[in-house]
Amino acid sequence: MSVPLPGEGPRAGQVRAMFDRVAPSYDLLNRVMSLRIDQAWRSRLLRELAPKQGEAMLDLCAGTMDVAAMARRRVPGLTIVGADFSFGMLSRGVRKTGLPAAQADALALPFQSRSFDLATVTFGMRNLDSWEAGLRELARALRPGARLGILEFFRPETAGTRVVHVAINKVMVPVMGRILSPDPAAYRYLVASMERFASRPEFEEGARRNGFRDVRGETLFPGMCGLVTAVRA
Ligand SMILES: C[S@@+](CC[C@H](N)C(=O)[O-])C[C@H]1O[C@@H](n2cnc3c(N)ncnc32)[C@H](O)[C@@H]1O
Fold this sequence. Notes:
CATH superfamily: Vaccinia Virus protein VP39
Shape: globular
Distance between the termini: 41 Å
Mean pLDDT: 91
Bound molecules: S-adenosylmethionine
Number of helices: 9
């Protein structure tokens, strides 16, 4: 079943159903397809945000809560809450981490304003009906001065990064998705949604427009993964 892409109108129901379908094989596929580089990216994100004992962290679009799990191992005294609208993904994350979590839409979070000292969103923003509305909702849930860290497959822009993107995402990912995934269409969506999403510079501008300052971006893997950090204004 094909899921509408970014910019193709409301699609939250179909995105949620897709993640419920891939949830049982999500962690394994992530590790195999990325050769565990995905964990190195999450580790880098947490190094940048430097969570501290006593702080409250939101892991939004938490999925199976890999970021939350890593943060808990590093900072045992950190309060961590996961949020995601897919019960299939989140229930696995709760079982894995033992951490609290809320089944919730990123565009209408069930948290009071200024509840968190930091937030992470890894590979989630691309899936929202409106990533700018997602940033505004994050800004609402974060206290002024709080840190935000995003990992995302931004749209590749330069000719060089497009070559890497095509080699990895158009050739390797679909083949591995066909072999390993119960839902190969989900892996076609991953690649197509990346091409329709914002480039990293566009996303950084969006963050400045929607409540954040000190926005910084970096390419972690050309043609694939970028990191953006920002401070709630
Ligand atoms: C690619 S997974 C990433 C999961 C995890 N953060 C990771 O690093 O592996 C994207 C997650 O975003 C969630 N998601 C997508 N749109 C959402 C929305 N509108 N509200 C809440 N969660 C959403 C999906 O259910 C899915 O679990």
